[in-house]
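> tool_call: predict_assembly(chains=two)
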Amino acid sequence: MSTRIQSIRNAELPREYYHWLSKESFWGWLFLLPSLLVLGLVSVYPLFRGIYLSFFEYDGIADPQWVGLDHYAYILGWTEFWIIMRNTLVWAFAAVVIMALIGLGFAILLNREFTGRSVATTLLLLPWAIPFISIALNWRLLYNFELGPLNGFLRLAGISEGLPWIASSRYALFSVMLAWVWRNFPFFMLTFLAGMKGIPNDLYEAAHVDGSSKLDSFRHITLPFLQPVAIVMTLLMSLWSLNHFTLIYVMTSGGPGNSSMVLPVYIYRRAFHLGEMGLASAIAVVMLMVMLTYGLIYLRLYREEVGGK
Amino acid sequence: MATDTPPVTDDEPGGRFSRFSDRQVELGKAVGFHAILWSLIGTVLFPVLWMVVVSVNQTAFEPLVADPLGWASNANLSGYRDVWYESDFPYWLRNSLIVSVGATILSVAVCTLGAYSIGRLRYRGRTAVATFLLVTQMFPAILIAIPLFLVFRDFGLFNTLTGLVIAYVAFTLPFAIWMLRGFYENLPESLEEAAMIDGSTRFGAVVRVILPLSAPAIATTAIFNWVLAWNEFVFALVLINDSEKQTLPPGMGEWIGRQTLNWDMMMAGAIGATIPLLVVFIFLQKYIVKGLAEGAVKS
């Protein structure tokens, strides 16, 4: 095969090769057309329409009323909004850090030869193969005061009479976050494992000969090698976390009060329960600004690693 | 593997472990390692175990520990029967399957061409398109969902599975292209050139040479699309109105507050919703691992 390609490469190219049908730009845009069409109609157009809608008062039925920047002025001076914004940021970024650390821990454990290794890897990937809705119902039961095994264990061990978990404004956000971490740490585990496989073994041998400790090798060889992978995963996971809806909506609906409320759930309720689509869109536009600012700064800082060649 | 250092005893022959032979020390370390690893795995999997336990016989933790045999002798499938006959679960399952299969097939077809274009062809503007794809990941889904609801209402797509499939294709597309792109970048150059010099068009070359080569990568992308579509909540919640046209996630979400005490039924449903994902996962696990590795660690 390769010799064949070689001989073809050395041969003179026929004139047809330079025809416009052979131009990479023609085929490039042609192949992109379906993707751009779908994204344009179902992503970009609604996005701009949503931004436009944010300048109106609209309940979905009566004619929209132009209100200009009123919604934005209202949002920015509104304490409840800032509480929800803080929850959203804590939810997204704290969770990603915890996931990454747990994922790294398991990757280190699994990154050696032992019997049962592939079984262990498969079992640790299992949370990823369970739908969010099942996780939400499952963890709601785990946290149940009477029936839940978590409190059951605490009572049996004589540690406490049981914690209120998702029923308390103090623990609710953290409790749901735990379920989100449980589902997503396998992502980090797998990418870190793959990254570790790519590190040449010679480096560790050389470091050992030079008298470095295991910890030094980890700090100066393993971590730097994993950094590019970690950067991409962290960006994607934090954006996905900001967007995540199911677990909070099903486990707490943002309650008690607004203690575990995050922006997507709040926007949904404002738009579809209270019929305030204009205000809801304005909050969503603020959320878009936050995500774009974060994402673009991140991309600028780590252009190389994310692969924006 | 790579982080393993030689056994401690090499460095300190007369050290702490001098009372034990090398073999015993190795054995002790292995036992300790396995004890830690498997108890951690047990902890991680406990929620899944509990889901299964409650689905066949609803119980709290203390009674189960006190009398596991009593629990086992009363186990039955009434939770599964209830979920199938007493709720709209069969409708939701069917709708989820239709929407996920439809969205996965369409999305794979569209994203394969797009990923090939961005990953392989050289032309002005492709970097901009790649960046644009990443930027779409920064759009809040709920910001898209509100106007999409209005658009679909105007075009008769509201409350239809067709509309949901269209929404899911757009929703899964950017990440799918991004993943597959890495694979095409790493293919050796001039694979299609041979076919093209033999008289194929670029499209013919892609179909005959590139597609067969990239089957595993496409399978991985399909799995990711499948998982995304199977899990999607917001669009289904907003774009579907009737319970009988709803998919599993919002449908089962309705149980909260209505079925407060029937945990056996809810856990049976949770397991039922897991099976289609688990089947895909078990059969295609090696592709998932490989795909994540290649997608994330591309050079």
